[in-house]
Amino acid sequence: MNLTDTGIILDARPHGETHAIANIFTERHGRWAGLVHGGQGRRMGPVLQPGNEVKLDWKGRGEDSLGHFTLEMIRARAAEAMADRLALAGLSAACAVAGAALPERESHAPSFAAMKILFDNLDELDVWPALMARWELGLLAELGFGLTLDRCAATGVADNLIYVSPRSACAVSAEAGEPYKEKLLPLPAFLKAGGDASLDEALDGLKLTGYFIETRILHLSDKQLPEARLRVVELLQAKRATEGSSS
Question: I need a labelling partner for 206 at 20 to 30 A (CA). Which of 30, 125, 189, 194 fits?
Answer without folding.
Answer: 30
